């Protein structure tokens, strides 16, 4: 079994559909179907049961998962180590971060990098989920959780202050919330509970039990613009919120911090283009003054 067939098999097994596998691999759905059929013919075994809603692994398919994942790990190791020897300031880099960190810090760093090294192209992926650098889902990550994988190199590059914000129009219409009232009589904008559960307990230490959650969104951009639009109150990174004159900080004694980590794989951290991007990111963050305050793990 060759690696091309193995990776298609794994994609189908993980997504449960030919369409899902095709989207994950950026290939045609018909190609995925042909490869699966060819692999089943090659192995003289059915790998999937075709139900009305999904493709389900057969016992033969389940037995193939381990060897296919071993091939995947070996392929990723080869890719990382070959890339790690690249001294050219050209090529593509994949950077994973959150919407907030991208808008405030990572995109300015990319702009600096492109001015200095126009041969480097960037794929910027924004999500609250953590990209797997070992599987080369990204080459560099900028995130607020420190990784614990031994093959990753992490450097703390900033400590961001967060505060509670509302729009001036909201405050004019509804008044300022008072500390110790748990946002009684006020509207809140939060991420969904299953994505950012700490927000459903308190904002910067102020309980939310008496506030009304009027809007939920998985998008950091949507949450931010909802506050600008006057829909409610939420916790924001101060460095970003202070760029918008429409916003005002409420409960100014309530504040928190979150660490920001710059992460890459040990096999890639000496690659010329990866080093250039990381240096640009560090330069942008160096302009940010780091507050010395207690903190908790958060998602920017």
Automatic annotation (TrEMBL):
<keyword id="KW-0804">Transcription</keyword>
<dbReference type="InterPro" id="IPR036388">
    <property type="entry name" value="WH-like_DNA-bd_sf"/>
</dbReference>
<dbReference type="InterPro" id="IPR000847">
    <property type="entry name" value="LysR_HTH_N"/>
</dbReference>
<dbReference type="Pfam" id="PF00126">
    <property type="entry name" value="HTH_1"/>
</dbReference>
<dbReference type="GO" id="GO:0043565">
    <property type="term" value="F:sequence-specific DNA binding"/>
</dbReference>
<dbReference type="Pfam" id="PF03466">
    <property type="entry name" value="LysR_substrate"/>
</dbReference>
<comment type="similarity">
    <text>Belongs to the LysR transcriptional regulatory family.</text>
</comment>
<dbReference type="InterPro" id="IPR036390">
    <property type="entry name" value="WH_DNA-bd_sf"/>
</dbReference>
<keyword id="KW-0238">DNA-binding</keyword>
<dbReference type="InterPro" id="IPR058163">
    <property type="entry name" value="LysR-type_TF_proteobact-type"/>
</dbReference>
<dbReference type="GO" id="GO:0003700">
    <property type="term" value="F:DNA-binding transcription factor activity"/>
</dbReference>
<dbReference type="InterPro" id="IPR005119">
    <property type="entry name" value="LysR_subst-bd"/>
</dbReference>
<keyword id="KW-0805">Transcription regulation</keyword>
<protein>
    <submittedName>
        <fullName>LysR family transcriptional regulator</fullName>
    </submittedName>
</protein>
<dbReference type="GO" id="GO:0006351">
    <property type="term" value="P:DNA-templated transcription"/>
</dbReference>
<feature type="domain" description="HTH lysR-type">
    <location>
        <begin position="1"/>
        <end position="58"/>
    </location>
</feature>
